[in-house]
Amino acid sequence: MHLIQGLMPHSRVLDMGASAGSFAANRNDVMVVRLDLEKPHAMAAGWYVWGDAARMPFATHSFDLICSNHSLEHFHQLEAAVREAGRVLKPGGALYVAVPDATTLTDRIYRWLGRGGGHVNAFRRPEEVVGLVERMAGVKHRRTKTLYSSLSFLNSHNFVAPPPRRIALFAFGNERFLAILNWALRSLDRHLGTRLSRYGWAFEFGGAGVAAAQEAWVNVCVRCGAGHSEAYLRRKASVRTVLWFWERYRCPACRGFNLLSPEAPG
Q1: Whole-angstrom distance between the N-terminal and C-terminal Cα of the chain?
Q2: For the chain, what are the domain ranges?
Q3: pTM higher than 0.85, yes or no?
Q4: Which CATH architecture describes the domain 1-148+197-215?
Q5: What are phi and psi of 234, to 5 degrees?
Q6: Which of 2, 13, 121, 194 makes a 20 to 30 Å CA pair with 203?
Q7: Parallel/antiparallel/unpaired status of strands 219-220 and 198-206
Q8: pLDDT band at residue 22 under the 50/70/90 scheme
């Protein structure tokens, strides 16, 4: 995550609603604390605290950066959790929030497949999220980035429990099927101006001195969800032509199979 790269040594980062860990820190001189109500099946690097985001067991002004990476949609006490984020964030600290757009095809598939999938809050406009965070956490909105879908929640490599029978409609999570589906959705977006490959938004608040934001990337891995620019993939991922209209690559982060989509889809 690019915000971590802009932190001073010995900074503290809170991964709020982290589960097993929503990002890799990639810095040994930064302390990452991951907070969640449930004990995860596996754990990324960092310290783990089991607690409620609406009543965090941390002192006021404890963290230089707070990341709520696809967690706000799961919080039953949404306003209380955002208020708590504002309380434990240091003055001048940065807050990162990523949420799904409830109007997108991806989020509807997720909720349909998992009978809600734990999503108790539906965000339909970026202004809803900006207003909520500025009002409850007291930090100023800096920038917004569009997120594109990876469909990684459908990938059989990521199943930790038997999936619902409805997964049969997606070739039982076959990775190559999902890569083709992703490519098709992005192609429709590019040629018809649809929003089928959109997933949601990433917001940055506070932290006027943080690193510059990354651009929106349409190539998001169907296995791990890592996004990369087309230029980076052509340099680093050994892009190869499969058919005259398909180019495939292996994700640099996890080696998942993907099909390359030109930027941008529309």
Answers
A1: 25
A2: 1-148+197-215, 150-196+217-266
A3: yes
A4: 3-Layer(aba) Sandwich (3.40)
A5: -70, -30
A6: 194
A7: unpaired
A8: confident
pLDDT, tens only, 200-252: 999 999 986 555 556 789 999 999 998 999 999 999 888 999 888 899 999 99
Top-confidence residue, 5 or 78: 78
Helix (H) or strand (E) holding 15: strand 12-16
- Torsion of the alpha carbons at 98, 143, 126 and 217, rounded to the nearest 10: -60
- Which token pair is 30? 């930064």
- Counting Cα atoms < 13 Å in the Cβ hemisphere of 80 gives 9
Q: How far is CA 72 from CA 25, 29, 130, 160, 194, in A?
A: 21, 28, 12, 22, 26
Helix (H, G, I), strand (E, B) or coil at 163: coil
The runs of H, that is alpha helices, within the chain are 2-5, 78-88, 105-113, 126-137, 175-192, 230-236
For all residues of the chain together, what is the average pLDDT? 91
More confident residue, 1 or 50: 50
Residue 15's CB: how many other CB atoms inside 10 A? 30
How would you list the strands of the sheet with 12-16, edge to edge? 47-50, 31-36, 12-16, 63-69, 89-100, 198-206, 141-148
Q: How far apart are alpha carbons 41 and 141 in whole angstroms?
A: 34
